[in-house]
TrEMBL record, chains A, B:
CDD domains: Fur_like
Sites where the protein binds Fe cation: 75, 110
UniProt protein name: Zinc-specific metallo-regulatory protein
Residues that coordinate or bind Zn(2+): 81, 84, 118, 121
UniProt xrefs under Gene3D superfamilies: 3.30.1490.190, Winged helix-like DNA-binding domain superfamily/Winged helix DNA-binding domain (1.10.10.10)
Gene name tied to this protein: zur
Example GO BP: negative regulation of DNA-templated transcription
Source taxon at top rank: Bacteria
Length: 124, 124
DNA sequence: CCCATATTGATAATGATTTATCACTCTTGT
DNA sequence: ACAAGAGTGATAAATCATTATCAATATGGG
């Protein structure tokens, strides 16, 4: 059966406690604070298991490797800091955007990403 | 100095005449109608040159390889057909979205991608 | 406590996209 | 028309993120 290991606990904790989507590398970094020897392979394995069980979802961003966040959040979008590369969660949404599509097209969903600087980075 | 070859003409024409962003593979396909022996390496080389000279811009999409479109268009967004994978240009924009970002963040730009089915694909 | 085995970590392998190489070809100034 | 050298095509090689491998380790039911 599935076992509860320190590694998995640390990875779950990282995703639960970070209030923003994390890349595999960021998850590794966070979780290593609890489990120093943690390897990247275990991070990927665990992410995949969590996505498969539905408790975590992938956040895809233009030209970037996927980030991961806890599932079950309401519809929202993301902010990508162009300075540090961190991705943050935004709340709110402009609403239905299907008026943007020409006749013949059918819009089913949308993704919005805002870019700029986060509070920790020089306003550039 | 820079030479005007059939290959470059065909690649520029493909990008100019397609009224949507093209992937390197799509550019190859289109341009080969004019220059049958065209190789993918030339497509990449030419794309890079065109981007560098500023006449073409990359269109990055979540979880996808970049597409390329002519530069100089006014602010717009894109539609990604989930059935055929083609990317289309949309006109219009919900406008300023900086109200979405929390205090301390500074939004400089945004990207919006709509997903759904294009006129050529089954509404699925 | 013990052992079957799920899990891990290090690293090799993969897959997909993009770039470098190099001999040959085509463009262009003269 | 000619020659210098920019450009091309085929393909090897480089990236880079992700996955597979496998010996060693740690979990947890009995």
């Amino acid at each position: 059966m599935e076992r509860s290991t320190r590694q998995r606990q640390a990875i779950r904790a990282a995703l639960r406690e970070a209030n923003r989507p994390l890349s595999p590398g960021e998850i590794l970094e966070y979780a290593r604070q609890q489990v120093p020897g943690l390897g990247i392979a275990t991070v990927y394995r665990t992410i995949n298991a969590l996505v498969e069980e539905g408790s975590v979802v992938a956040v895809e961003l233009p030209g970037e490797a996927a980030r991961y966040e806890m599932a079950g959040k309401s519809h929202h979008h993301h902010f990508h800091c162009t300075s540090c590369g961190k991705v943050f969660e935004l709340m709110g949404c402009p609403g239905d955007l299907s008026w943007l599509v020409p006749p013949g097209f059918h819009a089913e969903k949308h993704e919005i990403v805002l870019y700029g600087s986060c509070p920790n980075c020089p306003g550039a």
